[in-house]
Design goal:
Helix content is 34%, strand content 12%. The longest helix has 22 residues.
């Protein structure tokens, strides 16, 4: 069984990784910019409380350098979030304005919605934000507030409704979606917002690159052995998305919340393109194409590393 599993994993990784190589360009299609790694929530499904990195906001010069480079390369999509609540950044709206003025076609944030007051909502709409996804977990007020402590269910629901109404009033093209990864009742979770927002999506809780016990991974954390009945796959993030942390480090992926595996550092001498085409990225892509994800501590048990 293990021999067959290994053969299948190598075959899948080689074939899919080869296709990723063909599709990848000299610059990432998506750049995730962590303008802040601060957060106002202590969600039980998130390891933010254990973060070892310095809590900080991205320096203006670094942000502008990253945005300017993305614009020069015609980057398709910019995410102004990563491991933190983007609305903790008081400069968020002006950062959106800068990105749109540089001609970036899609600027997106992922928020918990608790700080999305009518004033912030209007400012984001006026800034030209293209898309916002709001995390919303729990089918009832009690379940939501247990999962997303200390956020308040009524506040988040009210903020979302207010944002949609203001978006419609201003005839803005902003897309407003809600995302859920933890609930006991999907329909119950959707009841308060389904007919209001543009879309509702459900996903699985991941295990934060094998660093937390949550998620759907059956891998043996102590050995890193591939669980029975599973097949390895290369992670598309390595060919598609670049994650720039608040201090300028480029992390392995968005699940590397503590910046454990740094692939490079953006500064005046080093660009995203330099890191994207550099040896560190080539090395981790090669591991994934060879089904050797177990050689990478953050990939060996990550739920995103298996079919």
């Amino acid at each position: 069984m293990k021999a067959l599993q290994s053969i299948l994993s190598k075959t899948v990784c080689r074939m899919v990784g080869g296709l990723y190589d063909l599709a990848a360009g000299p610059f990432p299609k998506v750049v995730r910019i962590e303008t802040t790694n601060a957060c106002n929530a202590k969600c039980i499904i998130c390891p933010h409380g254990t973060i070892g990195r310095k809590i900080q906001h991205m320096d203006d010069d670094l942000f502008e350098q990253v945005i300017d480079e993305c614009a020069r390369h015609g980057c398709k999509e910019i995410h102004l979030h990563n491991f933190g609540e983007p609305l903790m950044d008081k400069k968020l709206e002006s950062r959106v304005v800068h990105a749109k003025q540089k001609g970036l076609k899609k600027v997106k944030i992922f928020s918990n919605g608790s700080l999305l007051s009518p004033q912030r909502a209007e400012a984001l709409i006026d800034a030209g934000l293209d898309e916002i996804k709001i995390s919303f977990d729990g089918a009832t007020r009690e379940e939501f507030e247990r999962i997303r402590t200390p956020l308040k269910f009524d506040t988040v629901v009210s903020n979302i409704k207010s944002l949609v109404a203001m978006r419609d009033q201003k005839k803005s093209p902003m897309s407003i979606h809600v995302a859920c990864c933890s609930t006991t009742d999907k329909q119950g979770t959707m009841d308060s917002l389904e007919s209001i927002v543009d879309g509702f999506s459900f996903g699985k809780i991941h295990n934060w690159a094998g660093e937390t016990p949550e998620g759907d991974s059956d891998a043996d954390d102590s050995t890193g052995e591939q669980p029975a009945g599973t097949v390895r796959k290369p992670c598309s993030r390595l060919w598609r998305t670049c994650t720039v942390l608040a201090g300028g480090d480029v992390s392995l992926c968005c699940l590397d919340y503590d910046g454990q595996h740094v692939l490079g550092h953006i500064d005046r001498q080093t660009t995203i393109a330099d890191v994207w085409r550099g040896e560190a990225y080539r090395s981790v892509r090669a591991k994934h194409k060879q089904a050797k994800q177990a050689d990478l501590s953050l990939c060996q048990n990550c739920t995103k590393a298996f079919l």
